[in-house]
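Troubleshooting: if your tokenizer reports a length mismatch, compare against these two reference records.
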Amino acid sequence: MTENNQQKNRSRIHFIDEVRGFAVILMVAYHAFYTIGYIFGLELGRFLFIFFTPAEAFFAGVFIFICGISCRLSSNNLKRGALLLMVALAITLILKIVLPDEVILFGILHFLAVSILLFVLLRPLLDRIHPIAGIVVCAALLLVTWWVPEYKGGFFGVKGMLSWPVPDTLKQPLLFPLGFGDLQSSDYFPILPWIFCFLGGSFVGVWAEHMQFPTWMYRSRVPFLSVIGRHALIIYIVHQPAIYALCFIISKIIQ
């Protein structure tokens, strides 16, 4: 096999698609439990939502990390970020009209859109940082800022060891996207701490960009998950209306 053919066969990192697809399935299930439990009032939905809440940070983090990797593989991050931001703002507007109590002010799509645009802005600087150094720094900053959002504790540092409370002067509604302030949002992924998960992925993406991942990652093993992973954005956009519509129809049938 020629070198060009080898590179062509290795150009798609199927393992990333499959992991992203798995994370999307978990996220859809988690949101379904919320809809069933808190919008349609079924106790089982509330139980499952609360039971799986500790795992949300893991599968959401995987999704965010992979998005960071993908930024190194995209040919037009500016377009991706702008389109995603328009989709996120449209979802906010629709929910504000249709389900005002469930409005999303800065959810995961808002966060990803802003992160991609920040990556475009910061890429000249990020390209000068060695990937291993970038990953280490991002991991440290993720740890230090993990508790910044008000619902987590509202402090910098490591819980139970060394910490500093977020100054009251920063707790402003306009700074809500950064992780400060306290507004009602049914989905909330603030820039702090999640930007460091995203940027950590972008540094791993340097190796993806140069096709330096292990060979086994380029082989497709679970095509179903790979397809879901490649269409993650579309699935994420339509899954909530689809879940709500399905629950509504079922609730009317069983009444």
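Reference record two:
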Amino acid sequence: MYSPTVLDHFQSPRNVGDIPEADGIGEAGNPISGNQMKLYLKIDDKAITDAKFRTFGCAASIAASSMLTEWLMGKTVEEALTIDNKTIADELGGLPPTKMHCSAMAADGVKAAMADYEKRQVGR
């Protein structure tokens, strides 16, 4: 049912936690499934230098969040805005159609974190 990559990220999630001095924080969730995600980003000179997450949800949600943080490291703000649920699912080696909402939640978390980052930049 799940790819080896999904199982690996679920069983050994990377970058779990939060960043106290985060430059952007995004929250996303699916009230129907109950999955919730909070994404923390550290951004220096328009490049993502750290990404951490806290996710409550199924194996696919945790795997999508974990893989997302790895994908984001070293990306520019502009590159991060290009990620979508298909990119996340593809990086995971695919997700069952009934679990695509998990990759969509992760993509929504990035968009929310980027919006928060941009809002914080206005005051600087």
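Descriptive notes for reference record two:
- The chain has five helices and three strands.
- Residues 48 and 74 are 5 Å apart (CA to CA).
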